[in-house]
Every structure is written in structure tokens, then in C-alpha cells.
Amino acid sequence: MSLHTPPGHASAPLAEADRLMTVCNACRYCEGLCAVFPAMEMRRSFADGDLNYLANLCHACGACYVDCQFAPPHEFQVNVPQTLAAVRADSYRRYAWPAALAPIFDRNGLWIALIAALAVAAFIAGFVAWNDAAVLFGTHTGPGAFYRLMPHDTMVAVFGAAFLYAILALAMGLRVFWRDIGEPAATLAEPASLWQAVKDAATLRNLDGGGVGCYGADERPTDNRRLYHHLTFYGFLLCFAATSVATVYHYGLGRIAPYPWWDLPVVLGTVGGIGLLIGPAGLLAAKWTRDPALRDDARFGMDAAFLAMLFLTSLTGLLLLVLRATPAMGLLLALHLGVVFAFFLTMPYGRFVHGLYRFAALVRYAKERRQMAEAPAARA
Q1: DSSP-derived 3-state class of residue 72
Q2: Using CA atoms, how far apart are residues 229 and 60, in angstroms rounded to an integer?
Q3: pLDDT tens sequence across 110-128
Q4: Which among 304, 300, 295 is positioned nearest to 110, based on CA atoms?
Q5: 163-171 mean pLDDT
Q6: What sign for the dihedral angle of Cα 166, 167, 173, 176?
Q7: How far apart are CA 154 and CA 128, in angstroms?
Q8: How far is CA 5 from CA 1, 8, 93, 102, in A?
Q9: Sequence-separated (6 or more) residues with CB below 8 Å from residue 279
């Protein structure tokens, strides 16, 4: 990778991405592998915004590296997956809001997330024990059992504020990304582009290496990463749905948690929680065992933090479900709430944002592809 930053680019990874896209634009052998190369072919030069767009359009399947005749040890040193991974990770930092917080998460994201989770858990447990240790270590059952440790309104105020802050920070970062890639706001109101992006994201259409699968530890492609991504994504959606249904139960129907195991919030949360155990664990294992040529090890921290927080949120939630009628419930609830709070805290400054930026990139690509298809008809 280039060790200096030529004029016109904000960083060395962006300059290297420009060089590689210029080489790839002359070759075009990989144009059928994913969306990156057709989008690249629509351009003759690459500003930083274009490169950040292409980097977030990349799903890191590795097929272009395996297929490339100019990959190392060739003198051209073409390694698109690793270079775009570096650009992509830098874009998370570049678009972070507020920008002053972004450097905190550069290399120690996992430790920051774990320390934050344990600190919040210790504070909750200590506060409850200070007032009445019997409440922390007692057995509580029936409606409102959870709220004997922390009142419902207090829980909603603290964690609702953290969640709203995360949503605000994510929205501000996405706004900057959208402006940087030069796309007008009107594109987000185009039903055809949005629907195509939803389909591409929901099926991970660009994570199949052109049809053969994704490359990991060797040159034998599999669909494992795609499966783990699906389990993580849909597991997260099911857990969010469980929380939403529980909110309707509480405020709309007057039904107070915890709910029986067969009730809808518990069923949704359990199925989603299992997905959030298998998916993140599989993705972490895939990252550690992947060919080093395809990894961006310098920016591994926040990737690991995001997956670890998802895994721990699910693990503590499922343990809380199983042991909620035992004396362990108080400590498990404190630990679960600490992990959830840390997850909200790190959401805008790590891997979680890639889903938003990638979806936005897919919306832009859907629009560009449709315009290219319509152009010949318009000329005729």
C-alpha cells in the first residue's frame, strides 16, 4: 500500500484505492463478481467521496483478489478487498458524530466496550445492594419482577436516552456520508431505488463472489459468511421486534414483563437471541481464520467490539430468561443492562454503521444501474 498521500486525497488508503480502481478500470475482468466493479466502470476518475462509496458497496467476499492476475506478488500489487476494507473502516471514523469521540475507538474498541459494560453493571448492582442487598440477591417472580431492581420509568429514561443518542449520532454520520458521496437527498425518496436496495441487502446479493461463494482461510469458497451475516442481521431484527412488542404490551395493553416463555416477545427474543449467538460467533471465527491478505488487521478492534457486544447482549439476555426465577436474576439483569448500554454507546463509532452506509451505497447503485439501463432507450 502507498506510504504517502498524493495531492487530492485525504489519506493513503484513499490514494491506494484510486490507484487500484484505475488499474481495475483498465482490466475489467472482475465486472461480474459484485456491484463494485460495474459502479467503478461508470467513472473515469475517483474523488474521495466516490472511493468511500465504492468501499461501502464492497462486501469483502474476496473473489476479486483470488481472480486477479495483478494480485501480489505481481508488481502492480492489486489487493482490492484489503484496500477497500481500510477505506471503509476509515470512513466510519471520518463520518462519526460528534467527531471528537471517533479517535477513542480507533484501536481499543473491544476493551472500551467491555469496560463500559462492566462499569455500568457494577454501578447498577452496587446501587441496588447499597439500598437493599435482599433485593439484589432475592428471588422475584410475577409481573414487575425486573422492576424491583430498577423502576421501569428509570430504566426507560436511562436506556432510552442512550438509544436516542445512538440514533442521533448514526443519523448525523449517515447524513455526512450521503453528502460526501455527492448524492442528492431526493434519491432517498425514489421507491424503485429503495426497494432494490432492500432486496440486495436482505439477500446479501453481493456476498457470493459472483455465484461461487465467499473466500476465507483458503481458495475454497463457501457460503458460511453469508449464513453468519443472515443469522446476525435477522437475529437483531427479531430481538428488536421482541422489544417493540413488549413496549406495546406494557403501554398499550397494560401487561407487565416478564412474560411467560410462550408469549410473543419471549418467542421472538429467544429465536433472535439464538441467531445473535451463532452469527456473531461465526463471523468472529471467520475473521480470525481468514487469509491475512484479505484482512485489515489494523482496524480489527471495533469489528470485534461490535460482534462481541451482540454476542454478550444475546448471551446475558438468554441466561436472564432461563434464570429469571432464581436468586441469580438480580446480577444477571445488572450485567445484561450494562452490556446493552455499552452496545448503544459504541454503535455510532464502530462496525454497526457499516449496515447504514452499505444500504445507502446500494440505494445509489440501484439508481445508477437503472439510469444506465434507461440511457440506450432514451437515445433510441
Answers
A1: coil
A2: 12
A3: 777 888 888 989 988 898 8
A4: 304
A5: 95
A6: negative
A7: 13
A8: 11, 8, 18, 21
A9: 228, 229, 230, 231, 232, 233, 235, 310
